[in-house]
Amino acid sequence: MNNILSSQIVINEYSAANLNGPIDDFKKTEDWIEIYNVGNDTINIGEFYLSDNKSNLQKWKFPNNTKIASHSFLTVWASGRDTFSNKGIHTNFRLTQTKKNAESLIISNNLSEIIDEIKVNKTKHNQSRARIVDGENTWGITKTPTFKKSNNNAKFFKSFADRPSFDVKPGFYNTNITVTITNNELNSIVKYTLDGTEPTIKSSTYINPINIDSTMVLKAISISNDSTVLSSFIEFATYFINEKHSLVVVSIAGDSLDNLANGKKDVMPFGSIEYFNKNGERKANSYGEYNSHGQDSWVNDQRSLDFVARDECGYNKGLEEKIFELTDRTEFQRLILRAAGDDNYPATDNPEHNGDAHIRDAYVQNLVKKGKLNLDVRIAEKAIIYLNGKYWGVYDLRERPDDSDYTEYNYGQGKYDLQYILTWGETWVEYGDSLTARKEWKTLYDYIQKNDMSIQTKFDTVSAQLDVKSLTDYVIVNSITVCSDWLNYNTGWWRGKNPSGSHQKWGYILWDNDATFGYYVNYTGIKDTSAKALPCNVEKITSSFSDPMGHIKTLNKLLKNQDFKQYYISRYIDLLNTTFSCSNMLGYLDTIVNTIDPEMKRHIARWGGTYEEWRQNVQRLRYFIERRCELLNSGLNSCYSLTGPYPITFDINPVGAGKLIINSLTIEEFPYVGKYFGGININLVPTVNDPNEYKFDKFTSSNGSSNIFDTTSLKVLRVIQSDTILANFVKVTTSIGELPNNANSFLASAYPTIFTDEVNLIYDLPIESTIDASLYDNSGLKIATILSGKDILHPGHYISNLKFNNYYLANGIYYLKLQTKNEFKTIKLIRQSNN
Length: 835
Known about the structure:
alpha+beta, Immunoglobulin-like, five-stranded antiparallel sheet, 17% helix, 34% strand, globular, disordered N terminus
């Protein structure tokens, strides 16, 4: 394209701070960029490109035949949607104005020649940067963006005043301190506050160093005497005087934040947040928006809040710190400050809150996370909150799984890749097109209800779309904890549509597990909320009131498949042996109690109740868990006609030769002792640590009471009493000149054994036979039938290309089980993808 036409277009205005200004065609407030035609002729920019990355000039192309009339404007939304219609044009990238190395906005032509380039400099929320006169070189800041209009009549400012600085670091001090504020802006004054509110022209003027003799939040701004210079961004720091805590501390501060925390739910104030580690060091801070969190729990005096860091405010895009022990994630735009929800102590004085312990929800969700179950959870970290410098008690900091930052980080599924459905009384689509997500979920649900899931091909169709292990874990967790507030409330399930990401099957989240272990209101109407509740009671929750979206109906249909039923019951047993064993549950409960106990007396002094009552409530929770542990075993026997359980010891001979997959568990440390039941198969898969040194030989029973046999897919153990099962491995030996006689053997191999989406299966049939091929995960759950074995094949050499891309496999170990007329073989495969 010639340079005369190229010079006709410029970036005329942009807003990377559109928090609640212009609304796009999706009814969202996204960042936007205005392109201006400075020439006297209409220009077609369909061959031009827009980018925020100089190393990728052709990141996004303007739609074909996009025209801008002479001295006219074209506005594009920097939303990341990468769509266009006559209602709006959306780029495939979004703007971030607070990066340490500022982004650029670049227009280039199809020869990658740069036509216009500007740096994305930050503003405060709802402001924009624009050319003071359309198309001319001088830029300014405006508090009233000229969206789709000329810039010529707008009021502009040339800059922000420099932010003041403090000579004392935020943190904890044993005595009074004196803070000196340095004004870094010439011809200006500094205004400050000490109560957490934002300083304005009406705030105190800084003259002399400030004496801090109690815990305070100091905030300051510089206000220039030059009317073309905007006031600075806020400098803020919390100083704790004579405060001692054993937990991390979070200081939150802002205008009307106390009104929000005291029950004015419709207030959504801006404010600061500061995160201090257990050593009292400020490790992260941010600025953004606060809103209410929770529903029923707002009857309590201590309330939960949400914090959302806003890049649009011009400070940063999130708290940059490893806040949670149970994730490696180090940046959080959203953070829940949860006051233990309905389990808050002291909760409002109603009988339904008898036994409140300030523990349950975070306890359950962290247990699940530590156990690596197939669920997304709100992991928790205990903290002390100060609000506008005032002590606000013991809280849980919580990660939020129903958030696109979470799904992007963990699964590579971004905001516009999601179908995310939530139920809380009503059901809605949080992410994704509502009609499409509902329709696609209902199509799957209807298929399950209308088809016989005992037919493996029908089940395979479902398991390719629904993470049946996630559904299993979701139901079992709520069954073990006797949750009475789920299905019709606090239920979420989602999948990602980005083929490069994971979690492409529908899977479940945990959400508010306060009403557990015999506590709070039975909103779901479960049959029994006591410690003796049967494990199979959940299978009877089928009314439209209790389970409006039919999750339990789905489970019940899937249980018609015998392989899945085996997996479901075995998984229940596995979790009782590990995550939800008595020792693990009680041990982790004691850890939490010991963590918050030193803080609870002051918490109670702030919010009420008595320390003795809280300890009694904790003991009540502990007793319920102890009783639940005792009664679940007999409940499994009653529900599924089992016997036992019997203590079974598993060991490896020789030591270090291998490991065992027992049902859904991979056991690496031996001896391993678990409680297992008679009347159900225990699936065993031995694996060798070094195939060049050892190979598996056989299992042996110490007392001969257990039956160990091979099926077409794996080795199976049946027990009737206590026993020790030994997995025996032998040295790999090769005799020179000795070759095996394979003339009459079924030979099979596969390559690559470390695969992404497909594997080549090579096999030789010595006799006329059919061949079945099925894929299993490392827990023994059948994923799919790959070859159906319907056709009789002649003796000979065969190669089959097996494609697995339609099964949305997670990375991990799988087993390809092959069955001919007389023999079977197992091939270990590893799916490994960088996505």
